[in-house]
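Box 4.2: Ligand-aware structure prediction
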Amino acid sequence: MEEKYCQSCGMPMGDTDEMYGSNLDGSKNKDYCEYCYMNGKFTSDISIEEMIEVCIPHVVNEKSGMSENEAREMMKELLPKLKRWS
Ligand SMILES: [Zn+2]
């Protein structure tokens, strides 16, 4: 199975639908995670630069050995390819 990433923050969403955001009608939204998208809208109206800064501590935390700068470079590569930002 193809790994799914949130199309807003780039977070891996795993194999279940637990991380998915929700549409206005209560159904799951498979493009975005629950932190980015709830009840049919984005939880915060932020720019891609702000999103990168928000994500960096999580990326550094997850990938031990990665520096803040490396995480920032990675997010700058990844985020513009995602649906929300393209
Ligand atoms: Zn997300």
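In the box above, the bound molecule is zinc ion. The helical segments are 48-62, 68-78.
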